[in-house]
């Protein structure tokens, strides 16, 4: 695929697969769920053509990277540790970071833990969420949205894996990547993954059957447990990060979200982003972009525009 190179790197006790292309300052691209390095394929090519070296790993648990079995090894400390070890293995002191979805969460954490390694950050879809010391994330989510909210449904080991296996990896990938309902993601067991005339899983212009087949083939090989384990480490993350309560993110940041992104409809998020609190927590926040008509998987849906947004920001540093 356009001369993208692939290699395995030993990092933090696991073997990590990375895709890379180009020469110049390094841009580390961090994917979300249920994605892979492949979600960045347009940005890899675009950034390489503009004089950057784009590096996109499969995160732990995904694709061709090792998948430790215990959800306790999928905290942000582990995954940020993987990325720091990757930079060390590649001999890189500082990099630009771009994150999406879980990758954005991890990128925020990386900037909290090791701001010395990040020149600047472009984060997509997930705004910084300051740690709430009063109660665990799953308690708050269950109280707000009930037991069928996707993050709560993902908690029990084996449950969603069985449902995903029954539906097939291709159906699961299509269902997530084509989400356009900006409301909370409620996934009733009996109906959510069923394909029917009312729910045909047709593909938008930006997502091809070849794309779906690539994602699905890797999830068929690996299963979804690795990706689900990030959600299962939610409460453990909360316990382990008490020392960072109230800490600001002190790297230059650009934040981009689609106006149809389900994360933007969460209670209080728009007020947080636009009302000044976001800027208090992220004092070097330089720009917030809300893209009209774009949903959650914005790096794929609006790939050229996202590449331009990334370049326009990082070229300043």
From TrEMBL:
Keywords: Hydrolase. It holds the Pfam family Abhydrolase_1. It comes from the Eukaryota. Its EC number is 3.3.2.10. The keyword Lipoprotein does not apply. It catalyses: (24S)-24,25-epoxycucurbitadienol + H2O = (24R)-24,25-dihydroxycucurbitadienol; an epoxide + H2O = an ethanediol. InterPro entries: AB_hydrolase_1, AB_hydrolase_fold, Epox_hydrolase-like. It is an enzyme of class 3 (hydrolase). One of its GO terms (molecular function) is epoxide hydrolase activity. Residues 25-136 form the AB hydrolase-1 domain. Pathway: Secondary metabolite biosynthesis; terpenoid biosynthesis. Belongs to the AB hydrolase superfamily. Epoxide hydrolase family. Epoxide hydrolase involved in the biosynthesis of cucurbitacin and mogroside tetracyclic triterpene natural products (e.g. siamenoside I and mogrosides IV, V and VI). Cucurbitacins have cytotoxic properties and exhibit deterrent taste as a defense barrier against herbivores. Mogrosides are nonsugar highly oxygenated compounds used as high-intensity zero-calorie sweeteners; they also possess pharmacological properties such as regulating immunity, lowering blood sugar and lipid levels, protecting the liver, and acting as antioxidants and antitumor agents. This is soluble epoxide hydrolase.
């Amino acid at each position: 695929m356009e001369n993208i190179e692939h290699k395995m790197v030993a990092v933090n006790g696991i073997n990590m697969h990375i895709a890379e292309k180009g020469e110049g300052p390094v841009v580390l691209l961090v994917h979300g769920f249920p994605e892979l390095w492949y979600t960045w394929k347009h940005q890899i090519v675009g950034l390489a053509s503009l004089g950057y070296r784009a590096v996109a790993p499969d995160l732990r648990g995904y694709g061709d990277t090792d998948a430790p079995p215990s959800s306790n090894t999928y905290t942000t400390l582990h995954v940020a540790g993987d990325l720091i070890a990757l930079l060390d293995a590649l001999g890189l002191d500082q990099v630009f970071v771009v994150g999406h979805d879980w990758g954005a969460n991890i990128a925020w954490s990386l900037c909290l833990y090791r701001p010395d390694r990040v020149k600047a950050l472009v984060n997509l879809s997930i705004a910084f969420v300051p740690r709430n010391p009063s109660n665990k994330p799953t308690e708050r989510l269950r109280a707000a949205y009930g037991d069928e909210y996707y993050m709560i449904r993902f908690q029990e080991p084996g449950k969603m894996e069985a449902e995903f296996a029954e539906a097939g990896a291709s159906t699961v990938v299509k269902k997530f990547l084509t989400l356009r309902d900006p409301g909370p993601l409620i996934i009733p067991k009996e109906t959510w993954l069923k394909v029917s005339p009312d729910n045909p899983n047709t593909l938008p212009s930006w997502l091809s059957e070849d794309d779906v087949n690539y994602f699905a083939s890797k999830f068929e090989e690996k299963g979804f447990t690795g990706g689900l384990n990030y959600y299962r480490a939610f409460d453990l993350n909360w316990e382990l990060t008490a020392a960072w309560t109230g800490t600001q993110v002190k790297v230059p940041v650009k934040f981009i979200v689609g106006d149809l992104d389900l994360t933007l409809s969460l209670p209080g998020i728009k007020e947080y982003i636009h009302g000044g609190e976001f800027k208090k927590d992220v004092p070097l926040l330089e720009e917030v972009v809300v893209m009209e008509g774009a949903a959650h998987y914005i790096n794929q849906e609006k790939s050229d525009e996202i590449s331009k947004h990334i370049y326009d920001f990082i070229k300043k540093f």
